[in-house]
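ingest -> validate -> predict -> emit
validate: passed (alphabet ok, no gaps, 116 aa)
predict: started
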Amino acid sequence: MLTTGIKKSKPYTLTEIIEYIPNSVVRKTIVSKKTGIISIVAVDTDESLSEKISPFDTFIYVIEGTAEVVISSESSKLQTGQGIIIPAHASNAIKGNGRFKMISIVIKSGYDEALI
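emit:
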C-alpha cells in the first residue's frame, strides 16, 4: 500500500503540503487507486514537466503561481485558481513562468482495457 503521509478526514492547506526544491519538480501522491491518482506538484523556476501522452484524461488545477499547459501544440496560460482537462491520448507539456504548484488528477476508469 502506498503511504503518502496525508491523513484521511483531516483538512489541509494544499500549498503547504509540498515545498519547492531548487532546480526540481517535486511530486507528492495524495491518493493512488486503480481508478485514478491525485498528486500535488511543485515546479521550481525554469523547470517543466516534459511532453508526454497519457492514455487517460488528466485534470490540472493551479494552486499557486502561473503555468503554461500545451495540449496538442495549443497553449493555455493558467493562473492560481484555474484548471484544464488534458484529454486522453493528447500530447501535453506543462511549464511555468516562475515557480508554481498544481494538483493533477488522473482518471483511469471509463476506458476499454484494449486502449490501456
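The chain has no helices and seven strands.
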